[in-house]
Design a protein that fits this description.
Rossmann fold, 2 domains, alpha/beta, 12 strands, globular, 15% strand, two-stranded antiparallel ribbon, 20 helices
Length: 474
């Protein structure tokens, strides 16, 4: 990977937040295309955090003070794609890793958070109004570019460090774990150690194979949902019929300009792979039924909650580049794999344009989807609708840069510690194959934690990961 060094634009004075964290805000510039360092630049934003400690003995010199601040960095790679990082005080990493001597860096990935965020308006400003130009711009927002950004920032931040402190640790959750595997493939020289949670993605399986596996997981979670709430079998189908009745061919208008259709209702199933997600979906069903029972229409509160539930409009990279995350190299295109694979399954007849409606299901339930991106989202979500042609071009593109180097992973020397779950989003069978292809990896595998365990059960996750690192598990 050719080295490019980021430019530090500004750095704030440290400030203290509850939890005794000392935080700095940093702004960087990096090239849109790292192969063209002099070309268009992007802005990256990050927050760093250390545990505040008032020294018992003040350093004797400025040089000693500077050296005492040179803690090894731990870079957090956020899930998504398309989602910015939380503030350090809101991250479980601050509570579980800072006391071990790290300086935590929460870097918003390009296109997310405060880092040159992508929206319909900013995309038009940055790339122009042409869908083809917008697609060409967005091709620089996958994991390979994120790794190059991270390496550029690392080299800048550690340029005055002694050699033994210049490498950093990375912690990748979900998509961030996939990005970690890209990092291990192409820039292992920058890494001291790697932590991965829920992100051992298939290395050479395209979107069709991945969705064939994750649909199976999704169906299992649907069955768990209906076992817990058997009354919802009839209620969900009744609600689907009322949506078709109230919304006609287009759907029920939503407050921010979107549309509630039966397929969009089914996307609430994205929650089913999370801890407590079954109850989240059930709560929507209760609320929608209560509205209709009492008023015959859906209230604004309910419609607003449904519209804000997904990140479709607020984090458009998630929809635009989700299937390309699984396009591991040249010759692989998404081509709306989630829709194509789903249409082969009897449980997802609602994906067909000629679906006869919920009354055609008899006693069978109406199944929710999971982490699948469908072209209909670009019709019912107002922000995405402005990028529909761009999304189609990206779906058809098949000349993606490689995401993984299998030979490098097979001879990996960087310590890797991973947590793998019985996961609706990252299939555990495929994850097991991936782990077998990374030399030296240690994996904690469990079927009692969900994909969001880093947030919902952090004590369990960090205990097991740090046991792996500290070799307390033989």
């Amino acid at each position: 990977m050719a080295p490019v060094i980021a430019r530090l634009v500004s750095e704030s004075k440290p400030y203290l937040v509850p939890g005794k964290l000392l935080i700095k805000e940093l702004w960087f510039e990096v090239p849109l295309d790292h192969a063209n360092p002099a070309g268009k630049q992007l802005t990256l934003f990050a927050r760093s955090a250390i545990r505040y400690e008032k020294p018992i003995v003040e350093p004797s010199s400025a040089e000693a003070a500077a050296a005492s601040q040179q803690r090894p960095y731990l870079l957090f790679l956020q899930g998504g794609p398309g989602v910015g990082t939380p503030a350090p005080q809101n991250s479980p990493l601050s509570h579980h890793m800072l006391d071990r001597g790290y300086e935590l860096l929460m870097l918003d990935q390009r296109g997310t958070g405060f880092s040159s965020p992508v929206s319909a308006a900013t995309l038009a400003l940055a790339a122009g109004s042409s869908p083809r130009a917008q697609a060409a711009y967005l091709r620089h927002f996958r994991a390979d570019a994120l790794v190059r950004d991270s390496e550029a920032v690392r080299r800048l931040l550690t340029r005055d460090y002694p050699p033994e402190k210049r490498r950093w640790s990375i912690f990748g959750q979900s998509f961030g774990g996939m990005t970690s595997l890209t990092y291990l493939s192409f820039a292992p020289e920058g890494l001291r150690e790697v932590f991965v949670t829920g992100g051992l993605a298939a290395l050479d399986k395209g979107p069709d194979d991945v969705y064939a596996a994750t649909y199976r997981r999704c169906l299992a979670r649907n069955r768990a949902y209906y076992r817990k709430f058997p009354g919802d079998v009839a209620v969900v189908k009744w609600l689907a019929g009322k949506i078709r009745e109230l919304g006609g061919e287009k759907g029920v208008p939503l407050p921010a300009g979107g549309l509630l259709t039966v397929p969009r209702l089914m996307t609430l199933g994205l929650n089913l792979g999370m801890d407590g997600g079954i109850d989240v979906v059930h709560n929507y069903i209760i609320r929608m039924k209560a509205d209709l029972d009492q008023f015959g229409v859906f209230t604004r509160y309910t419609l607003n909650a449904i519209e804000q539930e997904g990140i479709w409009d607020t984090c458009p990279i998630y929809s635009l580049l989700h299937e390309p995350c699984w396009c591991y190299g040249p010759g692989v295109a998404g081509n709306w794999a989630a829709e194509r694979v789903g249409k082969t399954l009897e449980e997802y007849r609602w994906l067909h344009d000629d679906w006869a409606g919920p009354e055609s299901l008899g006693d069978a339930p109406l199944y929710f989807s999971g982490e699948m991106i469908y072209p209909f989202l670009f019709d019912v979500c107002p922000e995405l609708a402005q990028m529909k042609e761009t999304a189609q071009i990206l779906a058809e593109f098949d000349q993606w840069e490689p995401l993984y180097d299998l030979k490098q992973l097979a001879k990996n020397e960087v310590p890797v510690y991973a947590a793998s779950y019985d996961d609706m989003y990252v299939d555990s069978d495929l994850a097991r194959v991936t782990a077998s292809r990374i030399q030296g990896i240690k994996v904690f595998e469990t079927n009692v934690l969900f994909h969001n365990a880093l947030r919902s059960k952090p004590e369990d996750v960090f205990r097991e990961l740090l046991n792996l690192r500290d070799n307390t598990i033989d």
